Amino acid sequence: MSTPMLRAPQRTSRAWSAVGVLILLAGWQAAAMLLGPLLMATPLQALRALGGMLGRDDFWFHAGQSLGRIAIGVGLGCSVGFILGVLAGHYARLRGLLEPLRWLLMAIPPVVVVVLAMLWFGLGSPMVIFITVLMMAPGMYVNTVKGMLLVDRQLIEMAHVYRYGPWLRLRHLYLPALAAPLTAALLIATCGGVRLVVMAEVLGAESGAGYAIANARSTFDSGELYAWVILTLLLVALLEFMLLQPIQRRLTQWQEPSTN
């Protein structure tokens, strides 16, 4: 009796993704017409405001501040979570030692962390970066530990028999095994990191996209407010399609079926 062949998962349809974008824009337009220009700008008004913002020097200053904080915060948070996850996957005692801290960081509301960070660091980049690292690391840590615990123990023993060093084991054994959880964690961390940075800047920063959003809100400039929202969405899309998806294809290249 022959076994049925497993079908490869279908790729996401670009056409249906475009339809989804159009539905979102139509919903945005309808909500703006219902609420009025004081509460919500239309997509066209937001794009006009965005065009005016691009010619201002303060726009590039705020955008540069936010990009730097996102890069440092997400990069450090993911690196710390990955390194601790690899070590905790190896050593059960370290895993038990870090478990209460992991639970605490994942359970505490981000707003509480923002308030505490404002007390400790004041306003500015150190506060925003601290919050981002503290909130990003646990997710990467959990995904890395789960992936490490699922690695075939026989492969680990074989790597020790052939005397693979730490770098060779990481490159040829752990990274391929961690490809799926790592790429998912990177996507979540990047999107979450952008949101955290903007939220922290809204609540307690003197520069950045969140600071500009707070100013637009205080002056009831809904066009500029939603223009910054569009820029945030475009940044997340750019990071996903230009950075995260190439990394995912690189890490999961060995899983693609052979054409021979």
UniProtKB/TrEMBL annotation:
Keywords in UniProt for this one?
Cell membrane, Membrane, Transmembrane, Transmembrane helix, Transport
Coiled-coil annotated residue ranges, if any? none
Q: Does the keyword Plastid apply?
A: no
Topology within the bilayer: Multi-pass membrane protein
Where exactly are the transmembrane stretches of this chain? 70-91, 103-123, 129-151, 172-198, 225-244
Q: Which domain of life is it from?
A: Bacteria
Name of the molecule in the record = ABC transporter permease
What is the species listed in this Swiss-Prot or TrEMBL entry? Parapusillimonas granuli
